[in-house]
Amino acid sequence: MRKLKGGVIIPLDVPREEKALELVELLLPLNPFFKVGLELFGRAGPGIVRKIRDRGGRVFLDLKFHDIPNTVAGAARAAAAGGAFMFNVHALGGEEMLRAAASAAAGEAGRLGIEPPLVLGVTVLTSMDGEGLRQVGVSRPLEEQVLELARLCRRCRLQGVVASPRETARLREELGEDFIILTPGVRPLGAELQDQKRVMSPREAAEAGADYLVIGRPVTGAPDPRAALKSILESLTPGA
User: Which of 42, 62, 98, 99 is the most exposed place for a label (fewest CB within 10 A)?
Assistant: First the structure.
């Protein structure tokens, strides 16, 4: 099977900093990647990124910036200075906003002498389907909408996109091996879908061309999160 170039990202979608750091301590020996999203960021503030980094973790800051270019540029500089190794912006913010985010993140990292964060564009949320797009005025077929937004992100010098595993193979074919594809909506076989609509198993998503897989509740909601993560990682081992 195809080997992931990145890895599995564990969302820390919990309401308390202490619980998030407990999960980091528990899962870090198996996996270095964690996601800080709106709930935890809103509760714990930007300092949580540094605390995870200090423990050896790498943070995907999942705040989906979407605002006027100047505001998003400021947020991108803050994400870079705060220690995120990756953050995302909404591709629907348009070319000027996307270019401002990429430029500001790289510039801030250069000023500080640190590794620049990866900047990814969010295409279509994995909770949406074709009907959901039509409700917000998008008539283009869902896969075409994802692909067009991904092309825009590449033109604007973002390093990759966030897209469902259902679109990954087409994105990989069109945009090449050096373009990062991060896929939420990944569920082990037999797991509940919850609010996700366009899903695949971890192995299927990796085979389709994903670089990073976001896998949350099947791990963090399991009776033994470490054992659940270990099982998923083993399923992704070539030859497994």
Answer: 42
Residue 126: closest CA among 59, 44, 213, 54: 213
Structure tokens, 219: 């791990």
What is the pLDDT at residue 185?
Answer: 78
Question: How does DSSP classify residue 200?
Answer: B
97-101, 109-113, 214-218: which has the minimum mean pLDDT?
Answer: 214-218
Report the CATH fold assignment for 7-235. Answer: TIM Barrel (3.20.20)
List, for residues 98-108, the tens digit of each pLDDT value: 999 999 999 99
Q: What is the mean pLDDT of residues 136-160?
A: 96
Sign of the C-alpha dihedral, residues 132, 138, 144, 148? negative
C-alpha 103/C-alpha 239 separation (Å) is 40
Phi, psi of 210 (to 5 degrees): -70, 150
Catalytic residue among 5, 64, 197, 230: 64
Residue 198 has pLDDT above 60, yes or no: no
d(CA 34, CA 59): 5
Name beta bridge partners: 8.
213
What's the full length of the chain, in residues?
240
Residues 13, 189: Cα–Cα separation, whole Å: 22
CA atoms within 13 A on the CB side of 198: 21
CA distances from 42 to 168, 192, 224 (A): 30, 27, 27
Residue 230 a catalytic site member: no
